[in-house]
Amino acid sequence: MQEREHGLRDVNDSLQRHNQILKGQLQAKEKTIRDQTAWINQLDAENRELRRSVESSSDSENRAKIRDLRKKNTKLETENDTLKLRIRDLLRIAKDATDDRVQQLKEELSTFGKQVVDWRRNYEDLERQHQDLDRRYKRMRQNLDEHLDTIQQLTNENDRLRRNADAEDRSRRRHGH
Length: 177
Hints:
Distance between the termini: 72 Å
Number of domains: 1
Oligomer: single chain
Number of helices: 2
């Protein structure tokens, strides 16, 4: 019995030493958990602050870009409208000038039938003027097409920026921000 009691005491002592070791380890782990929890809380606060900072700077940058693109778009639309009016005016002027010139040439021809050489010279001048106006018209049309292409590109970029902004908004909502 004494041997058994002695054996049980040894086991009990060993278990108590092991229990003390485990208690020390538990206290160390609890301290590590408290430290890491505090660190996690600090990182969460920093993360929230950084997100607010990024969101506010991204939103203001996107708004500024959209505002600039809208200004450019408005400017291009105004230029486009101005060019359309100018083209209409030039076409009207060219038509009026051509009509007037043709009428004048008819009158000259009927009045001055013997001056065919002068008529041909005037006609050639008129033809050159018409070709010059035609070239100008084509250049203006080309400029108009380029402006329309630029407007389309800006519209596409504006749409892309809107989609990106919408995607960011959805992403923020998904993440609870």
